[in-house]
Design brief:
Helix 3 packs across helix 8. The protein folds into two domains: 129 residues, 3-Layer(aba) Sandwich (D-Maltodextrin-Binding Protein, domain 2); 103 residues, D-Maltodextrin-Binding Protein, domain 2 (3-Layer(aba) Sandwich). It is α/β, with parallel strands linked by helices. The chain has nine helices and eight strands. Strands 2-1-3-8-4-7-5-6 form an eight-stranded mixed beta sheet, sandwiched between helices.
Length: 268
């Protein structure tokens, strides 16, 4: 039988328990689950709408790679801001960087995809590519601080102050560039082939565009913050997880949800 005179002792015991819990590291109080946050602009199907049923295949991969110890979050923002904040250590890294694009960052040994840059034009355009200088005939949109490969980067750098290059800074640059193209305000834009295909299909515009030219093809990575002492360990863990998911077939299943195949099977 419970006695009323024992209530004061019970209160003391509860108070002691609360003090002990409060003194524990916050990681233990949260069942040892830590937070990892990565940043980038929207680049679907690589990374899509955060916290949705299809957050992007790279997000699904890193969520599985770090579970159950870490909870992975994704923040959508302009690419330049994602690079700047991740460099300072505000976020653990950026999603979708090609080699050397995020200078000073830690790159894993395993890529998380492959990007092939294309010139996207309206289907009713008859313009034909005749070498890099023929781009001067067009008004082209590009995304600020993106790495498009040596040929396009050199061209953009040389022509960036001219009216035929439109530099886009936005959380969702593809949406803006595609709208400009459909409105006839630009002649084309440079984007990854998978990204442009996925977006135009979602918009029902896949019959309204054509890929006038394929440029560089590069592996893309999760690039980890140079300011985070855990970056090398996190980088190694991700690479090991990707190799493991490829061997078990889990990687193939994730990619299939986005209509993609393993980038390792794509030509260089």
């Amino acid at each position: 039988m419970f006695h009323l005179h024992k209530l004061p002792l019970l209160k003391v015991a509860l108070a002691v328990v609360n003090l002990v819990l409060a003194s524990l590291p916050w990681q233990l109080q949260a069942n040892q689950t830590e937070q990892l946050t990565f940043a980038a602009d929207r680049w679907c199907p690589f990374n899509c709408k955060p916290n949705s049923s299809l957050p992007g295949y790279t997000i699904e991969i890193i969520q599985r790679a770090y579970s159950p110890k870490y909870q992975v979050n994704f923040r959508e923002m302009p690419w330049t801001r994602a690079l700047r904040h991740s460099e300072k250590g505000v976020y653990q890294g950026v999603v979708g960087a090609v080699n050397g694009e995020a200078e000073g960052f830690i790159y894993p040994s395993e890529a998380i995809g492959r990007a092939t840059q294309v010139l996207v034009m309206r289907n009713d355009s008859t313009w034909q590519y005749q070498g890099i200088e023929s781009l001067e005939e067009l008004r082209i949109a590009v995304i600020a601080n993106y790495d498009y490969g040596p040929a396009i980067d050199s061209y953009v750098s040389a022509k960036q102050h001219k009216r035929n290059i439109i530099t886009v800074r936005s959380d969702q640059p593809l949406v803006k560039m595609h709208k400009l193209l459909q409105e006839g305000r630009i002649d084309g834009y440079i984007e990854d082939k998978s990204v442009a295909s996925y977006y135009s299909h979602q918009q029902g515009d896949n019959q309204k565009i054509r890929f006038a030219k394929e440029f560089a093809s590069s592996l893309v990575y999760i690039a980890f913050s140079p300011s985070n002492p855990q970056s090398r360990a996190l980088s190694s863990q991700l690479s090991e997880a990707i190799v493991g998911m490829r061997e078990t077939g889990e990687l193939e299943k994730i990619l299939a949800r986005y209509g993609l195949e393993d980038w390792q099977n794509s030509p260089d």
